[in-house]
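Here is one chain, start to finish.
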Amino acid sequence: YIHVPAAWWSLGIYASMAVSSFVFLVWRHTLADMIARQSAPIALAMTLTTLVTGSLWGKPTWGAYWVWDARLTSMLILFFILMGYHMLARQSDHNEVKQKACALFCLFGAINLPVIKFSVEWWNTLHQPASILRSGGSAIAPEMLLPLGLMATGFFTLYLLVLSLRIRTALLQSKVTRLRARLIRNQRKPV
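Its structure:
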């Protein structure tokens, strides 16, 4: 159970990035911007995991590694959105105009999230429709539901762990940059 939890959390992490971007734009909270920017590589990794494991699953199931299915294509679009966001975010440190552009880009990309979620209902696709949260109850046997839930919990825990490490590292890098700037200013002052 790697494919489905990776898919769920790639969408969930992007949704949290969009919420954080909105918070940054409205209240100028720098931690919200940092959460969004530091979440991007994690979401990118989970989206790539989703695409790769889906292709490996698709070969025996559909007879091809890739088909231009609505859900596959919209997940690929999410991957490209995340790549673009990540590249923009890497250039936006300590520049409010670029941070705003990055946040707006993230919010614009969030349009793709409902497309991914509802693609199996809107179009005729190879993907199965919802199996857990649907009218009439879950279509998954409890023996399969428990490991799926455990893996989803594990993926979320991994996200929180990696995010906290990335934020801590970014804060320490920021502190080192400020200390270096202060040291350079003090060295330039005449005695």
